[in-house]
Amino acid sequence: MSISSYPPPAISTRSSKEDLPQKNHTETTPDHPETLSTLQTIAKISTTIKNFLLIALSREKGESAELTAQEKEFIAKAADTLLSPDGAFELSGTEAGSHLYLERYFQNLTPDKRRLLHIMFHFLECSPIIFGPRHTLFTSLNATERAQAMNFADKSLYIHRVALQSLRFLLTLGYLNNPQVIKKIGCEPNQNPFNLK
Can you tell me the mean pLDDT for 1-16? Predict the structure, then answer.
């Protein structure tokens, strides 16, 4: 029998992609909430550390009168942690406007003082990465962990305690500037002490 008498081989119409085993992409893509959250946290930490270095090394960044969105978030969460609504005045730090007071106070400082506060905000935001209670940014902690991070009494590093006490002092100034707080502590200013009107 001659070779030409055999029928030609059948040609498959399926594409080569169909012949290959399909991979399960759900195993490799970061669609899982835990993986995505971890990546976001790492990215946020990296950005914060980069900004910290820029503020420390760059005069323009360090002396800027503008607070970043992350600095404002840190100040607001620190205010509610240090000045809890469970206290005697039943007002949280943000409800009393202490965070806004600190922002206005910051803008009126001289450039060299603004640089120091920029550094302090970033140092305290990053401090839980080293000192705990959980190795992440302060703004990523839950309420209980933030309270532990703000407890200066159990901090072994002197500069850490000073930074926490300084932040508490500045936020308390804003808290005591609130009219409701002033009224509750009986320190309302007497605009007419001699009854001249």
Answer: 51
Alpha helices by DSSP H, the chain: 16-19, 33-57, 59-62, 69-82, 98-107, 111-131, 143-149, 158-175, 179-184
22-33: average pLDDT: 52
Report residue 103 as tokens.
């922002």
Whole-number Å distance between alpha carbons of 138 and 128: 6
Give residue for tokens 């040609």.
Answer: 11
**Burial letters 135-162, b for 16+ CB under 10 A, else e:** ebbbbbbeeebbeebbebeebeeeebee
Q: How many CA atoms lie within 13 A of 80 on its CB side?
A: 14
Residue at 191 is within a domain: no
Answer yes or no: is 47 within a domain: yes
Number of domains present in the structure of the chain: 1
Q: How far is CA 64 from the centre of its chain?
A: 19
* The pLDDT value given to residue 183: 87
At which residue do the structure tokens 């899982």 appear? 32
Mean pLDDT of 144-160: 91
Whether residue 85 is preceded by a cis peptide bond, meaning omega within 30 degrees of 0, is no
Residue 16 lies in a domain: no
pLDDT by residue (tens digit) across 35-72? 766 777 777 777 777 776 766 666 666 678 889 899 99
| CA diameter of the chain | 132
Question: What is the pLDDT averaged over residues 83-101?
Answer: 90
